[in-house]
Amino acid sequence: MIYLCAGLAVLIGLGALMMTDAVGAAADRTLVELDTTLGPIVLELDPARAPITTDNFLRYVDEGFYNDLVFHRVIPSFMIQGGGMTDAMVEKPTHAPIQNEASNGLSNKRGTIAMARTSDPNSATAQFFINLVDNGRGLDPRPGSAGYTVFGKVVSGMEVVDAIAKVPTGSNGPHDDVPLKPVYIKSAKRKAKS
Q: How many domains are contained in the chain?
């Protein structure tokens, strides 16, 4: 009977510890809501694995930088990209580029958010993309390619992402794959932890 009670006490203690860890993990969640013209998208960022990229993204969110910008590049079965252009396809001025953190163990899987960049691995500023499919094979780091930094994932609103992926697109000046009817990010703001 003593062994049973001691074992039960250990199990209860472990359960309480696991519950505390789960509550702590929920409290540590960094959530951002993109309110788009097609509905809300909630992102959970990963500051532990992508601290520079997360801080950079949150800086733009807190400054209201993303408000009224558009998803300017939409490629079905690949990704949707936004965070840099107005509906007139004018690029908004940004802060300095950040260091690439693509070797953080996060993969460009469906529903993840990653930083857009030029051919220079350390050129990401404000533009981001959301993967529509598993793009790890082409976008994750590998010999000869630095990869694209994943820094979070969609936790609510993937149906909105998929709806954006279905909008008709065309060319606008030198830009291809531009939605013919703009899809706006009406606002981007930190969301209260749930």
A: 1
Structural domain includes residue 66: yes
Looking at the DSSP assignment, which residues form a beta bridge with residue 175? 172
SS3 165: helix
Full residue range of the structural domain in which residue 86 is found: 29-191
pTM of the model: 0.86
Q: Region 159-183: what's the mean pLDDT?
A: 97
Whether residue 98 is contained in a domain is answered as yes
Tokens 């951002």 found at: 32
CA distance 128 to 149: 10
Q: Which residues pair with 188 in a beta bridge?
A: 34
pLDDT digits (tens, 9 = 90+) for 22-56: 434 445 689 999 999 999 999 999 999 999 999 99
Query: Which CATH number fits the domain that encloses residue 54?
Result: 2.40.100.10
Asked if 157 and 163 touch (Cβ cutoff 8 Å), the reply is: no
Work out the number of other CB atoms within 10 angstroms of the CB of residue 78.
17
pLDDT at 192: 83
H or E stretch at 49:
none
Mean pLDDT of 155-173: 97
In sequence order, the 6+-apart residues with CB closer than 8 A to the CB of 46 are: 30, 54, 104, 106, 150, 151, 152, 153
